[in-house]
Write a structure and sequence with these properties.
elongated; Tetracycline Repressor, domain 2; mainly alpha; 4 domains; 26 helices
């Protein structure tokens, strides 16, 4: 810094001076003298500096005093001047009052200047109106609007000047308004033209996009004027009549109305004129909306300024109009299939690639951000209405299907056979085709509805099968009243039995196709109960068919074990032929049931044969007759064995054992040595432990040579014997009753 430099210089100078004084050794003695001399010099310099400082301060004070004195004089002068001004101003107030006329003249001058400026326009108003009218009619909208703007500008300026001059003078305002009256009509006329173009914008944009651009430019100009007029109103309070026109807002309102009309107008038919009216209506809507939005995106968007956001505005308008239309449709009294059509369209088609999800509409249209067309509440109401309508429809269809099937049962022609030759009726096919159709329809809507419909179908199927069982029972009872009628009773009963198998398979395939694995449990109980009902129908059907056989066999069974039989009747031959004849028809029964039936027929033939023995219709006179009778029994057992082996061919059933019983009984009858009778009977009892005492008594009666005591002894002794039945033996004697005879007859 400067101070430090000065210090350093001072020190250097001092060093130099001291060095000058002390050059010789003798000068060292004078150091004290030098020091005093330097101290005196320093004191004298300091005193001089002090005097100078005081002098300069005094000069400053003097100057200050002199300036204050001048300022005081100036203030006095200003005060005097203000007094003079005040005096002059008071004198001239009256003169200013007299200048008001000049001010008014100035205002009037500016108005007249405006009038003169507009005079040319004012005089030519009628002519400009005519020209503008022509331009509008020729469709030259931009030029027409340019002239209209000039006219409006003239009128608005005149009105504004009038307003500034005298805002309360309505008479003059009205005069101007009336003079420019035709101009208002022109504005309306032009607007009408614009709105026509806007209404047809989606068509115009393809044919004549420049026309649409002109319309948008006119609207933009009007918007600008609106804004200017509103700004002026804020400052001056004046706004010309008819402002703001708000043509942009009107344009959007027109577009909105056009969109609504477009969607409402697509319903060409009613239910009365066309069953498919709704499907057609929805398809036309889909096509129109998709086409319109594609045009809007590719062409329309370019005709409007970006801030109009025209595509998104239109998208919202279409969505809103569709929503309104769908709600109207949902409120109508729709049939079940119509509800499905509507819901499929609303929930699926709308957001699919066939419509809003179309790749050409993305990314502007994002289906995930579209609101639902109808509320969940309305969807639920429609679904519940659909389910209740469907329930009553299914009940009706099933009832009708059964009635139709019953009519077939009394036909005089055999039922149809499937490709494997099994008799059947169309009932299962009709029922499951109907279920399939309804499930496919439900699947179009959603998974949940599909499951509900499946549950409904199976639930109705359950009660339907109970009716089917009752009808089959009635069919059998009616037939028993007159066995000649219906003519094809056996064949139709076979068809009913086979239908049970078809129903079982169809239920399984329906569940496999339409039910998710995790839902299986909810259906298992109803499935079990349907299977049980079907088994009962099939079992009762089979048993009624066997009853048929045995009713025909009755006269021949009555001949067994009689004198006529012993003489050589052909009862068993006829029995075998009849059974075989019936089984030619029974071959048309499906496997599981046919197998059971063959076993049951075999068993029943053997039971009836043994019952014939136990009826004691014959009592052999001697060993000769016993031998002949026993041999005939063995031969007939062989005939039965041969017959049933043939009938069971391929089913792998071993039914040999049944005919063995007849042979075992024949052995007891054939025995020539009465002393071995007990042994023979005990062998029989050990093989067939359900033989009762009355069976043995009857058997010994037929044999004809056992005394009452002998019978008694054999029976009493047998009770102690052990039994060794075949483990596969199904008790057969327990269903054979023996007629009780009076005592004298027994002793004979």
């Amino acid at each position: 810094s400067t101070m430090e430099e000065t210090d350093r210089e001072a020190v250097a100078t001092a060093v130099q001076r001291v060095a000058g004084m002390l050059q010789r050794p003798d000068q060292l003695d004078k150091v004290e003298q030098y020091r005093r001399r330097e101290a005196r010099k320093k004191a004298s310099v300091e005193a001089r500096l002090k005097v100078q400082t005081i002098q300069s301060q005094l000069d400053g004070v003097r100057t200050g005093l002199s300036q204050l004195h001048n300022a005081l004089n100036d203030v006095k002068d200003i005060q005097q001047s203000l007094i003079d001004v005040n005096k002059d101003w008071r004198q001239s107030i009256n003169t200013i009052e007299n200048l008001k006329d000049v001010k008014d003249a100035v205002v009037q001058h500016s108005q007249l200047a405006a009038a003169v400026e507009n005079l040319k326009n004012i005089f030519s108003v009628p002519e400009i109106v005519r020209e503008t009218q022509d331009l509008i009619e020729r469709g030259e909208l931009l030029q027409a609007h340019r002239k209209l703007m000039d006219l409006e500008c003239s009128r608005d300026n005149l009105m504004y000047e009038q307003y500034r001059m005298d805002s309360k003078n309505t008479h003059d305002m009205n005069l101007i308004h009336t003079y420019f009256g035709d101009m208002q009509k022109l504005s309306e006329e032009l607007a009408k033209q614009l709105w026509m173009v806007v209404q047809r914008s989606l068509v115009t944009v393809r044919r004549d996009p420049t026309l649409l651009v002109s319309v948008v430019r006119v609207i933009e100009r009007e918007e600008k004027i609106d804004r200017r007029m509103l700004d002026r109103k804020k400052q001056t309070g004046f706004i010309p009549p008819g402002r703001p026109k708000k043509w942009k807002e009107k344009m959007f309102n027109i577009l909105e109305r056009t969109v609504s009309t477009r969607i409402e107008g697509t319903q060409a038919d009613t239910r009365e004129s066309d069953k498919m009216w709704l499907v057609r209506h929805l398809e036309i809507i889909r096509k129109y909306v998709l086409d319109d939005l594609l045009v809007a995106k590719t062409l329309l968007d370019q005709c409007f300024p970006p801030q109009y956001d025209i595509f998104n505005k239109l998208l919202n308008m279409y969505h809103q109009a569709l929503s309104t239309r769908m709600q109207e449709l949902a409120a109508e009294d729709l049939e079940a299939n119509e509800i499905v059509s509507l819901l499929t369209w609303v929930l699926n088609t709308y957001k699919s690639t066939e419509m809003m999800g179309n790749s050409e509409l993305s990314p502007e249209v994002d289906v995930n951000s579209l609101n639902p067309l109808i509320s969940q509440n309305v969807v639920d109401q429609l679904l519940s209405k659909y389910m209740s309508t469907l329930t009553s429809n299914i009940i009706g269809w099933l009832r009708k299907a059964l009635e139709t099937d019953k009519k077939d049962w009394i036909k005089e022609t055999e039922p149809e056979a499937d490709q494997d030759g099994y008799y059947q009726t169309t009932l299962p096919a009709i029922v499951f085709q109907m279920f399939e159709q309804n499930l496919q329809v439900a699947a179009q809507i959603n998974e949940d509805l599909k499951t509900k419909v499946l549950l409904l179908c199976l639930q109705q199927m359950n009660s339907f099968l109970t009716r089917y069982k009752d009808e089959a029972q009635l069919y059998k009872e009616e037939h028993l009243k007159n066995r000649q009628y219906p003519q094809c009773y056996v064949q139709y009963m076979i068809a009913v039995i086979n239908n049970c198998q078809t129903f079982k398979e169809s239920i399984i395939s329906l569940k496999r196709k339409y039910l998710k694995i995790e839902m299986e449990d909810t259906l298992s109980s109803s499935h079990t109960s349907m299977d049980a009902t079907l088994d009962i129908i099939a079992k009762e059907g089979c048993s009624s068919l066997l009853d048929e056989v045995f009713m025909d066999l009755e006269p021949h069974l009555n001949e067994l074990m009689t004198k006529k039989w012993l003489m050589g009747s052909n009862a068993v031959g006829t029995i075998c032929v009849t059974v075989e004849d019936y089984f030619n028809d029974f071959a048309r029964i499906k496997k599981p049931y046919k197998k059971t039936m063959t076993i049951e027929a075999h068993r029943r033939v053997v039971v009836e044969y043994i019952r014939a023995i136990m009826l004691k219709r014959i009592s052999f006179k001697n060993a000769e007759e016993r031998k002949e009778g026993a041999e005939r029994m063995i031969k007939e057992a062989e005939q039965f064995r041969f017959l049933f082996k043939k009938l069971a061919a391929g089913s792998g059933e071993d039914t040999e054992g049944l005919c063995d019983i007849i042979e075992a009984i024949a052995e007891v009858i054939k025995l020539t040595d009465p002393s071995l009778l007990y042994l023979e009977v005990s062998t029989l009892v050990s093989k067939y432990p359900d033989i009762r005492d009355d069976h043995i008594a009857a058997l010994l009666t037929v044999r004809g040579d056992a005394s009452r005591d002998m019978k008694q002894t054999i029976i009493e002794t047998l009770d102690q014997g052990p039994s060794q039945p075949n483990p596969n033996y199904v008790p057969i004697f327990k269903e054979i009753t023996v007629p009780t005879l009076t005592v004298p007859k027994l002793l004979k």
